[in-house]
Amino acid sequence: MPPSPKPPSPTPPPPMPPSPKPPSPTPPPPMPPSPKPPSPTPPPPMPPSPKPPSPTPPPPMPPSPKPPPPPRPPSPRLPSPPLPRLPRLPRLPPGLPPPPPPHPPRPPRLPPVLPSPPSPRPPRLPRMPQWPILPLAPGYPRAPRRPSPRPPSPRPPSPPPPPRPPMPSPPLPPPLHDSPEPPVNHPDLPNLPNLPPRPAGARNPFPFGLCLSEWPNIGRAFQLNYVNASQAPSSGDWSYCFRVSYFQCRQAKCCNIPLDLIQFLITDNCYGAVYNLKVNGDDRASTYKVYDYNGWTYTVLKLTALGLSYREAQNASICFSLRADVCANLMTMCGAEICQLAIGNQPGQGRDTCCPTQRYPVTLQ
């Protein structure tokens, strides 16, 4: 079919005239410029400080030719194992708190780092002497050794001393009483002439020391009784034995006391004459003490460390011997027909020191 004719296009409208513009206002006249103060004169420039000439840099070192490194072979990559799939957490109902996250896996333990072995010690150089080494001088020949002296010939054994006569067994102790027994004559004790007493006017302060001795103001716990005497035929030494008995005193002081000490007032010449002192058959040691009073000396024989309680002192035996070359017999030792002695205890904490005296007749024994 033939094409249909196109309709004619409409005529465009005529152009609009331009709108008149309002006249622009007249601009204000320009303001005169404000006078500026004169700027100060700048200081003259400082001359540049002379710099030392920089040293000439060293010439660059030529690079050392390095051989190119050989190409590394490509390292084979191991296929990574697939990651394990975490289990799916179950859905929690609404309103409940979420469970705590699981603990991370524990890292594997590393092997302990062993210390490196110590480096070997360098060998030590020998120390040189500080002085020159001199050759050794030849030694002198040693003198011959003297022969040792011969041992002395053994002495012939001395003959044994003659046996002493057996001492008679002591009689039974006397019964307890408050007054001394009547004297009994004993033929064993020799009847010696009376010795002169001490100088006239000399007051006897025995027993010496700070102890209670004036009775009947104090109790009298013990009394020493004569038992027997014997003389050794070879040496002429006399041996004497006594026995202790106690009283049932009722005074407040010095009654129930131990027997620790027995003192004899002896002549000065018999110092050291007593030996072989035995108390209940046990060995004891005797001591001596010399006192000076008003210009006169007094010697006291002390039998110490007896260590007998009030009950143990009953029937206790006391024996000793006299050296005949020092002191002839008991009368010589006491210096008169009556021996003055004191029996008591040693000083102790919280108790009185007692030493009541006793006058013992010698010539009637």
Describe the structure.
The chain is mainly beta and 365 residues long. Helices cover 1% and strands 18% of the residues. It has a domain at 222-361: Immunoglobulin-like. A hairpin with a 2-residue loop joins strand 4 (274-279) and strand 5. It is elongated and about 195 Å long. The model is unreliable at 136-140 and 168-202 (pLDDT under 50). It holds the Pfam family DUF3707. Residues 1-198 are annotated as: Disordered. It comes from Volvox reticuliferus. Residues 1-126, 149-185 have a biased composition (Pro residues).
Assign an overall shape. elongated
Q: Which stretches are poorly predicted, pLDDT < 50 over at least 5 residues?
A: 136-140, 168-202
What is the number of helical segments per DSSP (H or I, 4+ residues)?
1
CATH topology of the domain at 222-361: Immunoglobulin-like
Neighbour order of strands in the largest sheet: 1-2-8-4-5
What is the CATH architecture annotation of the domain at 222-361? Sandwich
Mean pLDDT: 71
Query: How much helical structure, as a percent, in the residues?
Result: under 10%
